Amino acid sequence: KPLFLSRAVLTGLADATWTEEHDGILKRFAQDPSEPILTIFIDPCLGLKIDLGMPVQTQNQIVYFIRHAPVPITPENFEATVQFGTVRGSYIPALLRLLSGVFAPQIFTNTTWPESIRNNFASHLHRFLACLTDTRYKLEGHTVLYIPAEAMNMKPEVVVKDKELVQRLETSMIHWTRQIKEVLSAQETVETGENLGPSEEIEVWRNRCMDLSGISKQLVKQGVKHIESILHLAKSSYLAPFMKLAQQIQDGSRQAQSNLTFLSILKEPYQELAYMRPRDISSKLPNLISLIRIIWVNSPHYNTRERLTSLFRKMSNEIIRLCCHAISLDRIFEGYVTSSKEDLQGCISCCHAWKDHYLRAVQMHTQFSTRGWVLDQTSIFAQVDAFVQRCKDLIEVCDCQYHFARWEDGKQGPLPCFFGAQGPQITRNLLEIEDIFHRNLHMLRAVRGGILDVKNTSWHEDYNRFRAGVKDLEVMTQNLITSAFELVRDVEHGVLLLDTFHRLATREAIKRTYDKKAVDLYMLFNSELALVNRELNKKWPYLEPYMAQYSGQAHWVRILRRRIDRVMNCLSSAHFLPHIGTGEESVHAYQQMVQAIDELVRKTFQDWTSMLDKDCIRRLDTPLLRISQEKAGMLDVNFDKYKTQPVPLLVLSLGPFASPKSLTYISWFPSPFFCLSLSYT
Fold this sequence. Notes:
Helices cover 60% and strands 7% of the residues. It folds into 4 domains: 1-89, no CATH class; 91-275; 287-487, no CATH class; 510-610. The strands form 3 sheets. A 4-stranded antiparallel sheet has the order 2-1-3-4. Strands 7-8-9 form a 3-stranded antiparallel sheet, with no helix packed on it. A two-stranded antiparallel ribbon has the order 5-6. By secondary structure, the chain is α+β, with helices and mostly antiparallel strands.
C-alpha cells in the first residue's frame, strides 16, 4: 500500500478518505495476476474511487498502475512489474503531451545508442507521433501537420548527407500528403450530403474555410519550409505531389472564403424560419429564393449546377425538418385527431407553397435572364413529394381513429345507443371493431421512430399492413350497418341509424353501403306515400258517426297530410343524407301529393259553401224553442226541419229553479266552420 500511495500524484488525494473497500480493491489487484490495470481518481460526486480498469466516465485526472507480468505484486518485484503514471485531461492529448514533451526530446538527442537502433526507433516514433497528432486534433475537427523536431536545428546541406534522416522526413511528407488528400476528399463528401440543411451548409463551408486556412497557415510555417528545402536539395520525388496539393489547399481556401461570404447572406433568413410554424413559412420563401439566385448570379465559385441544385435540395430538407418539428407523433397516436390534422395540413400547404414559389421563380428567371435555369427539379423535390405523401398517410391514420375508435381531440366520443332487440349485439360488434383497430394502431405506433423519415422504406410495409387491417374493418362495418337495418320498419328509425353511422360515410367502401341504405330509407318513404295515396283514392272514406260530412272529410285529409309531413320533416332535418336521385324523386312525389291534398281540402270547402243558403245569417233570428201550441205548458223544438236539421247536443244550465222559458242550448250545425251558443228567454 505505501508503494502504491507514494506513487499516486492526484489533486485532492491528501484530503480524500481511504476506506476498507479501497484496501480490498488494492489487495485484489496486487494478488490477482489476471487483473491488468488499476486506476485511482477523484469522482466529483462519489469522492475517491479505485477501479480495476478504466473509469466509465471521463475524469480530469487519473493515476494508473499497469501490470507487466501475470504475477502477484510484492515489494521486491514492484519496480520491475508495475508501470505507473498520471494522466491529466483527455487521454489522447495527455499521451501526446507526454511523448512530445518528455520522451521524444530525450530520444532524438540521444547519441549513445547504436546508429541502426536509433534510426529504426526514431522512424517508428515519428510515424506514431504523426498518427497521434492527427488523431488528437481530429477530435476537435481540425487538421494539424506533425513537424518532426529532429532536423529543425540542422542546416539543409548537413541533413541531406544523412540518408536515414532524409527518409524519415520523406515519411513525414508522405503523411502530410495523405492528410491533405483526406481533407479534400472529405470536403467533397460533406458538400454532397443529402440530409443537410442550408444552415449546415453554411457551417460546413465555415469549417472548411477554417480547416483549409489552418492548413494554409501551417504550410508557410518555418518547420514545413525547412523540410521542403531539405527535400528539394535531396531531389525527393515526394516533394512535387505535396507542392501540388499545397497549391490546391491555397486555392480551396480562397474558394471556401468566397463561398462562405455569399452563403452568409442566407444565415439570418434561415434563422427566422426556425421559430415559425409551417403554415407561416410561405411568406418567407420568395425572399430566400431571391437570395439563392443572387448567389447564383454573382458567386464566382458557387454558381455551378451541382452546387445550386444541392443548395435547393438542402432548402427542401430544411422545410421537411421544420415540418417534422411541428408534428407530434405522440399526439397523433394518442387520439388528438383534430389538432394533428391541422398540423399535417399546414405542413402539406407549406410544401406545396415551396414548390409553387420555386416554379414561379423559374418562370421569372427564364423570362428576364439570358442564363437558363438548368437545375434538376426532380432531385430538388423528390423528398418533398415523399414527405407530403407521408403526411397524407398520417392524416389517414387520424381519420381512421375518428371513424373506428371515436377519437376526436384527445377524447373518445360517446358510444352510440342502439335500441331494439338487436341493440346490445350491435353495440358489442361495434366495440369489437374498435378493439381490433386499436391493436392495429398499436402495431403501427411501435415503428413510429422512422415514420417521418422519408428514406425509411420499411414504413410502406408497415402502413400497407395497417391499411389491410382497415379494409377488413370496413367490411365488418358494412356488415354491421346491413344487420342494423334489417329491423328498420319506419323512416324515423332509419334516420337515427344513418345519423349514427354518418361519421363512417366518408370512407369510400362504407359510403356505398351507406348510400344503399339511404336509398332503402327513401323507398320506405315512397311506401308511406303510396299508402297515403291509396287512402286518398278511396271514394267514401270512413268517418266517425259524430263527424259531419264536409268537415270530417277535410279533417281526414289533413290527418293524412300530417302523416307524410312528419316523415318529410324528419328527412329534411337529416342534413347528413346523401344527395341521390331516389331522394329527389321522393321529394318531388311528396310535393305533388301535398298539392293534391291542398286542392282536395279547397274543393271540399267550395262544395260546402255552394250548398249554403245565401241569407243564412237571418236564420239566427229564429228562436230555437217555442211554446207548444198542442200541449199547454210544454216547449217544442223550433228547428228548420228541411234545411239545416241542427242537433241539440248539450243543455248547459238547467237548475232546479229554472223555468222552461229560461234555457241555454249549444247547437252544432253540420258544418266544420262554426258552432252556435244561444240563449232563449
